C-alpha cells in the first residue's frame, strides 16, 4: 500500500486494504468494480458497497450503476441489524480485520488489531457505533491503514495487496471577506486600523480584522466563515459603508 500511495500524483488522506484476493495467484476475488469497469465478477457474492454520484451506498452489483464497488464477504450489518452469518465459515474466527461501514452521519473504516474478533464479536462492536450497513473486507496479514502516508496499524506484515480503498478528504472551505491588498505591510496596517474602527451593528467582527500575507501581497481581511451566507452579509454591510469588499477562500 505504501508503494501505491507513493505513486499517487494526488495523495489520498486515508488508504486501507480492500476486498479479498487469491493468495495463490494474486487475482481479485468476488466482485470488484473500478471507475465503472468490472475488474472481477462472481455469481455468488454480489452484495457490497459502491459509490453512486460520489456517495457510499449498500447494494447489489448489477442492479445499480456503481462507479466503484467491492463485495462484502460477508455483509455484517444491514439496515441496522446484524446479518445471520451463513457463509464465510472458513474465516469466522478471531482475526485482524478491516471493515467498511456507514450510517447517515459517518463513514467508518474499522481496523481490528490482534488478537482480533470473529464475526459475532465484530457485529456487536459495530452496533455500538450505530452503523446502518457494514461489510467485512480482507483481513489478517492484509489489515493495514495509512493516514497521510504513515501506517497507523501495527506493522504486522508488509503483504502486497491486490486492491485498496483510497479516501480523499475534502478540505473545509473557509470564506474570508477581503477589503484590500497592499505590496507594503505598513500600508496594509494603516488601512487595517480604519477597518477595526468601523461601527459593527451586525457583529461582523471588524475590531478583529487582520492582515495576512498571501503571495507577494499583504491582504486586509475580516472573518473566517464556514457558511458563505455569513460572509455575504458582511460584504453587503461593508459595501453600504463605501468599501469594495468581496469574498475569497485564500
Task: Give a verbal description of the structure.
The chain is α+β, with helices and mostly antiparallel strands and 250 residues long. The protein contains four helices and 18 strands. The strands form four sheets. Strands 3-2-6-4-5 form a five-stranded antiparallel β-sheet, with no helix packed on it. Strand 4 and strand 5 form a beta hairpin. The longest helix is centred in the C-terminal third of the chain and has 13 residues. The chain is elongated, with a radius of gyration of 25 Å.
Total beta strands: 18
Percent helix range: 10-25%
Q: How many DSSP H or I helices?
A: 4
Give the overall average pLDDT: 92
What are the segments in which pLDDT stays under 50 over at least 5 consecutive residues? none
Question: Could you outline the blueprint of secondary structure elements for this entry?
Answer:
Blueprint: H1 2-7, E1 14-17, E2 32-34, E3 37-40, E4 47-52, E5 55-60, E6 68-71, E7 75-78, E8 81-82, E9 95-102, E10 107-117, H2 119-128, E11 133-136, E12 145-147, E13 150-151, E14 164-167, E15 175-182, H3 185-196, E16 210-214, E17 217-225, H4 228-240, E18 246-248
Task: Give a quick set of tags describing it.
single chain; 250 residues; alpha+beta; 5-stranded antiparallel β-sheet; 4 helices; 36% strand
Task: State the gist of this model.
With 250 residues, this protein is an alpha+beta fold.
Amino acid at each position: 500500500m505504501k508503494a501505491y500511495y507513493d505513486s499517487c500524483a494526488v495523495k489520498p488522506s486515508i488508504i486501507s486494504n480492500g476486498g479479498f484476493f487469491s493468495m495463490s495467484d494474486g487475482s481479485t476475488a468476488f466482485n470488484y468494480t473500478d471507475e465503472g469497469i468490472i475488474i472481477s465478477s462472481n455469481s455468488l457474492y454480489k452484495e457490497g458497497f459502491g459509490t453512486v454520484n460520489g456517495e457510499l451506498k449498500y447494494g447489489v452489483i448489477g442492479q445499480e450503476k456503481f462507479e466503484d464497488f467491492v463485495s462484502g464477504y460477508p455483509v455484517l450489518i444491514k439496515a441496522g441489524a446484524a446479518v445471520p452469518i451463513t457463509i464465510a465459515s472458513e474465516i469466522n474466527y478471531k482475526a485482524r480485520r478491516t471493515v467498511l461501514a456507514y450510517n447517515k452521519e459517518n463513514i467508518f473504516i474499522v481496523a481490528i488489531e490482534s488478537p482480533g474478533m470473529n464475526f459475532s464479536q465484530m457485529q456487536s462492536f459495530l452496533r455500538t457505533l450505530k452503523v446502518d450497513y457494514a461489510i467485512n473486507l480482507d483481513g489478517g496479514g492484509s489489515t493495514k491503514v495509512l493516514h497521510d502516508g504513515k501506517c497507523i496499524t501495527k506493522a504486522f506484515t508488509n503483504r502486497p495487496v491486490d486492491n485498496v480503498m483510497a479516501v480523499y478528504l475534502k478540505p473545509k472551505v473557509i470564506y474570508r471577506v477581503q477589503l484590500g491588498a497592499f505590496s507594503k505591510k505598513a500600508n496594509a496596517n494603516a488601512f487595517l486600523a480604519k477597518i477595526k474602527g468601523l461601527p459593527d451593528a451586525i457583529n461582523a467582527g471588524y475590531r478583529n480584522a487582520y492582515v495576512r500575507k498571501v503571495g507577494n501581497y499583504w491582504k486586509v481581511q475580516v472573518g473566517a466563515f464556514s457558511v458563505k451566507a455569513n460572509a455575504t452579509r458582511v460584504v453587503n454591510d461593508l459595501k453600504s459603508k463605501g468599501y469594495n469588499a468581496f469574498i475569497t477562500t485564500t
